[in-house]
UniProtKB/TrEMBL annotation:
InterPro entries: AAA+_ATPase, ABC_AA/LPS_Transport, ABC_transporter-like_ATP-bd, BCA_ABC_TP_C, P-loop_NTPase. PROSITE patterns: ABC_TRANSPORTER_2 (PS50893). Residues 1-31 are annotated as: Disordered. This is Branched-chain amino acid transport system ATP-binding protein. Residues 69-316 form the ABC transporter domain. One of its GO terms (molecular function) is L-valine transmembrane transporter activity. Residues 13-30 have a biased composition (Low complexity).
């Protein structure tokens, strides 16, 4: 499973949310040439604009708020196998929630239920207190849930910028006829889409490779591009499925600071991740699954010290766990 087990102290502690600067520039690497040449003051103003473009309706550093998404007694069966067994938990506005558990625990299935890939056998998923019910997947994207995948899924032949523009297209309002007739509204949306996509590439730190085909980008850039594309749909909730897979420790640190910046810019994040240093270092709260059941729900410190969680990861019975 992971590089580290629960019970291991994270090497990196989370920055306090109050101290984090919304719209603060990412590391110089990944900035476009134009931005690199700016003075510090110009850069600060530029990144304030970028933050506006990335999350126009954001409420910066508001802290954890009301319930945004709720799983109520969700059960999902695949034939005889119960992948989720009466799972209930909440995702609150403005938090980074970790979803962890040993292999096969039901984490990805949980994501799939939340994003409409699977319908629960019983129970309910509610977004802003409304049942997701029988909404189609694209309607769920419109209702505000976006995700990345364990295995990167990009349009290989498209440039990085095009991949993000395609993500933003899910939000366009012009009709097909409007687009075909090239109505002014269509042009305006297209221009705004490109500008916002560029801002998103800058936000995730890969603007210098905007014109490169996705397939030619280094692995870490592809992972960041997936995040930019998911953000382009202006989601209320960003679900990240093992975003640190294949990263070295320095890349994991960069990813953690990106996840914090995403939250500080007004998004709510659900994170599936096997690397305990990343999970313990970046989340506000953690839900733990084992064999499809929720076995713990609490702060990283509470979860790390929970005997049932230690037992699940170490494979010893509850009463045998220290
Ligand atoms: N489409 C499916 N059909 C049948 N069984 C499935 C399907 N998808 C998942 N499962 C089973 O459901 C259980 C939960 O799988 P899931 O992929 O959600 O676990 P996970 O916690 O994400 O695991 P991992 O960490 O290995 O990705 C597993 O036993 C898996 O084999």
């Amino acid at each position: 499973m992971s590089d580290t087990q629960p019970g291991t102290e994270p090497e990196t502690q989370p920055e306090s949310q109050a101290g984090a600067q919304a719209g603060a520039p990412p590391d110089a690497e990944g900035l476009s040439a134009e931005v690199r040449e700016m003075t510090e003051e110009e850069r600060a103003a530029h990144f304030a604009q970028v933050a506006d473009a990335v999350a126009p309706d954001r409420e910066i550093a508001v802290g954890v708020g009301d319930t945004l998404l709720e799983l109520r007694d969700v059960t999902l069966r695949f034939g005889g196998l119960t992948a989720l067994d009466s799972v209930s938990f909440e995702l609150r506005r403005g938090e980074i929630l970790g979803l962890i558990g040993p292999n096969g625990a039901g984490k990805t299935t949980c994501f799939n239920v939340m994003t409409g890939v699977y319908r629960p056998t019983s129970g309910q998923v509610r977004l802003e207190d409304r049942p997701l019910g029988r909404l189609k997947r694209h309607r769920i994207t419109r209702h505000g849930i976006a995700r990345t995948f364990q295995n990167i899924r990009l349009f290989d032949e498209m440039t990085a910028l095009e991949n993000v523009v395609v993500g933003a297209d899910a939000r366009h309002r012009t009709s097909v006829v409007g687009a075909l007739c090239r109505l002014p509204r269509h042009w305006r949306e297209e221009r705004e889409g490109v500008e916002r996509a560029m801002a998103l590439l800058e936000f995730v730190g890969i603007a210098d490779r905007a014109a490169d085909r996705a397939k030619n980008l280094p692995y870490g850039y592809q992972r960041r591009l997936e995040i930019a594309r998911a953000l382009a749909t202006e989601p209320k909730i960003l679900c990240l499925d093992e975003p640190a897979a294949g990263f070295n420790p320095a890349e994991k640190d960069d990813l953690m600071s990106l996840i914090r910046r995403i939250r500080d810019d007004g998004y709510t994040v659900l994170l599936i991740e096997h690397d305990m240093r990343v999970v313990m270092g970046v989340t506000d709260r953690i839900v733990v699954l084992e064999f499809g059941k929720k076995i713990a729900d609490g702060t990283p410190a509470e979860v790390r010290d929970d005997p049932a969680v230690v037992a699940a990861y170490l494979g010893v019975p509850d009463d045998g766990a220290a």
